[in-house]
Amino acid sequence: MVFPHVTPGTAYRTCRGLSLLLSLLLLLSAGCAKQPTTTLMEVTAYCGCSSCCGWERGSWAYLKLDFWNKYVSSGPQQGASYSGRTASGTYPREPQQGFFSLDSLQRPWMIPVRVLLPWKFLPSDGTIAADTAYYPFGTRMYVPDYGWGTVEDRGSAIKGPTRIDIFYHSHRNALQWGRRRVNVTIERQ
């Protein structure tokens, strides 16, 4: 079949464009991200209370009369003001499952909250503290019975590639988690 309006130069450009489009499609479908790895880790939990994070109310310089202020009680920053932020500068948080999850079926009273408050509608990652020499800030991890979390913090007792801390809002939930050895899925960036 002969197409009179197609010249050899036009056919070449069309073929080159199609091959470029197909190679781009192949690259996008194959993905550029590294495959997630699973590692057996020792996972402990912490919360924002003074016994977990090492802060105290009031300063002895003011005879503890400024009880509304929080100060670091130990370590190299002892006496400095405590802000509650993580090492990466964010506020710690627990993972939120989002509206389209099994959590909405298990806790149906959260459905109106997630519908009326748009920031509760979408899922969000929790805060994980890890050794940033092995897992830089922003590394995503999946911890069974906790959910997805992002490395946003580090701690003095967290050393090595097999040790992380997960954040809970309540001290009771952190104590209930305790110390576990679980298989953690790690998504490298």
Please give a structural write-up.
- By secondary structure, the protein is α+β, with helices and mostly antiparallel strands.
- It folds into 3 domains: 1-31; 33-48 and 86-189, Beta Barrel (Barwin-like endoglucanases); 54-83, no CATH class.
- The protein is 24% helix and 24% strand.
- It has helices spanning 8-30, 50-53, 102-106, 111-116, 171-177; strands at residues 37-46, 55-57, 70-72, 126-130, 140-143, 147-153, 163-167, 179-187.
- The protein has a 6-stranded mixed barrel with strand order 1-7-4-6-5-8.
- Strand 5 and strand 6 (147-153) form a beta hairpin.
- The mean pLDDT is 76.
- One of its GO terms (molecular function) is hydrolase activity, hydrolyzing O-glycosyl compounds.
- It comes from Desulfofustis glycolicus DSM 9705.
- InterPro entries: 3D_dom, 3D_YorM, Resuscitation_pf_RpfB, RlpA-like_sf.
- Pfam families: 3D (PF06725).
- Keywords: Signal.
As a whole number of angstroms, the C-alpha radius of gyration is: 25 Å
Mean pLDDT: 76
Q: Ranges with pLDDT <50 over ≥5 residues?
A: none
Helical content, roughly?
10-25%
Q: What CATH first level of the largest domain would be assigned? A: Mainly Beta
Shape: globular
SS element count, helices: 5
Number of strands: 8
The domain count comes to 3
The proportion of residues in beta strands is 15-25%
Distance between the termini: 51 Å
Give the strand order, joined by hyphens, for the main sheet. Answer: 1-7-4-6-5-8
Major beta sheet summary = 6 strands, mixed, barrel
Secondary-structure element sequence? HEHEEHHEEEEHE
CATH architecture of the largest domain: Beta Barrel
Helix/strand class: alpha+beta
At the fold tier of CATH, the topology name of the largest domain is Barwin-like endoglucanases
